[in-house]
Amino acid sequence: MSGITDLDQLLAAMEPSLVDEEFVFCTCNGSLSEYTELDIIGSFKEREGLTLILPLSQARQEDLEYEGVFRMITLNVHSSLEAVGLTAAVSNKLSQRGISANVVAAYYHDHIFVQSTKADEALLALLEFVK
């Protein structure tokens, strides 16, 4: 099933939803296989180490270091990985309000991690696209 590539259609159709849980980005040594017992929702291997995105509660439980606490907004539209401009439009909308946008593109949806304290404001800003 192919995702939507047209930017206007993506913006009009997306249904951003805010996840209640708080998340953090941690950097760890080793491989992903060493962390399979954790409820990891995202990972990326970089030269400097392994980045894990996981619930704040788990990071605290495992005594993992992190900076910043985030909430996740899922853009409930099946965007194509080849779509042009969605990340830019979302980032621009949020930057106008001083909100950082850490975007993770998965196969079906884009997920925007925003500062936990600004999550409600971020959701309202993104809903402006669909009005």
TrEMBL record:
Signal peptide location: none
Domain named DUF2241: residues: 2-71
Matching Pfam families: ACT_3
Organism: Vibrio maritimus
InterPro entries hit by this protein: ACT-like_dom_sf (IPR045865), DUF2241 (IPR018717)
Annotated protein name in UniProt: DUF2241 domain-containing protein
Lineage: Bacteria, Pseudomonadati, Pseudomonadota, Gammaproteobacteria, Vibrionales
